[in-house]
Amino acid sequence: MTTPAAHDSLIRRGTVLTVIGLLLLALVYVQAIWFTPLERWQGQAHKILYIHAPVAYMTLSAFMLAGLASAAYLFLRDRRLDTFAEASSELGLVFGAAMLTTGPLWAKPIWGAWWQWEPRLTLTLLLVLLFVGYRALRNAIDDPDERARYSAVVGIMALAMVPFVHLSVYLFRTIHPQPVLLKPSRPEMPIEMLRTLLFSIAVFTFLYIGLVTLRYAIGRRRIAASS
Amino acid sequence: MTFWRAVLVIAGKDVQVELAGKTALATAVTFAALVLVIFNFARDPAEVTLATLAPSVLWVTSAFAGVVALNRSFAMERHRGAIDGLLLAPVSRSAIFGGKYLANLAFVLVVNAVILPLFILFFNVDLTPALGWVALALGLAAAGYVAIGTVLAAMTVRTRFAELMLPVLLLGFLVPPVLVGVQATTRLLAGRPPGEIVGWFRFLALYDVVFITLGFLLFPATMDE
Amino acid sequence: MNGPPENAPYMIAAYIVAAVIVVGYALALIRRGRRGDTDG
Question: How far apart are CA B215 and CA B71, in angstroms?
């Protein structure tokens, strides 16, 4: 059993990582806005990509990790896996909120429509929906063991949904033509833009690690305090 | 008691109880009829034709009615503490799932069997063989989401807002089969040959296989240790 | 041929919203960590 001091030390570590992450995020903002060239045809709005894409990857990753950790609990019965799942799912919802707000703000000027039923967007929306349910269930159960077991069941089923959502949207999309106003640039990205994008992805990943550590430590401390 | 016998006994018990009271079936069917009627009045006849709206209305009605029917799934056990009795019986937990699943599927299929004729009636659908394929699609989708719903119902029945929790959890799982079902129904009602729709049916079948299997595997984890 | 469209407001809005959500949550977490509260 870890001591309170150990919990506090983990919280401190998480806090430090998070603060560094936030400072790096400020650098990302600066670089994206002032030190990255404009895309030729799409105007300023194209730069939303440097925030939206990394945030979308983090949403997906956070949910996947939460699902996997929850599932692992069913086999290993280590409560720490459940605490991690709780932390990562919460982060998934936070990044998900950022993704679902920046997405339409990017789509409207670039694609001409607030929303597109394209595979990645739809998949992430569905995952957000599923994990909102996941959190709601967790909040409604008091017994920790029951909560961990039930979360594992929902988590496994949610993960199993991923290929089906992807497939159904793919089947749907091959029929419907997509509205195209300005085709978003994809094949070759100039090195300056690629650099900014990769930097942003790295920073958001770092931020995730800091935040999940902090949230996990808070969760562990809460369990230790209530036992 | 062998596995399959246990499954049938449990399913039979559930069906028997439901036939005696008929409350869940009546609720689901009434709900479905109401939804169909409202959808009909909700549109502007000049803007949206019945034909355009029909497949979506059919599937939304079917899915929601299915959720209503599923809510009753463990309600009985919860109210009378009967779940402990069920667990003490010499049947495996997987068998409990099998029985519950079959009973729930039977209810949902019965509700759908009422929805489909009402749908044909209200939406002036021509009676073509395509309707048989539509019915099959509805059944296939139900086979999948009833498995998921049975597992979820076993868990939500223990929570504080059970009747609200089940739809909240189940909704996300419904999107792919309903999406696919609507696509298939649109094509079938438009007169496209069934051969074109095979891909959609394969999707539904795969969905069923995966989630029925998961249901058997995961259900034991929802019962107390 | 016109130049690129003037859609800076979208970019500004998106950058601000994302920052508010992520930074806001991070700060709230850090405060929770330091306060030593024991309710989730």
Answer: 17
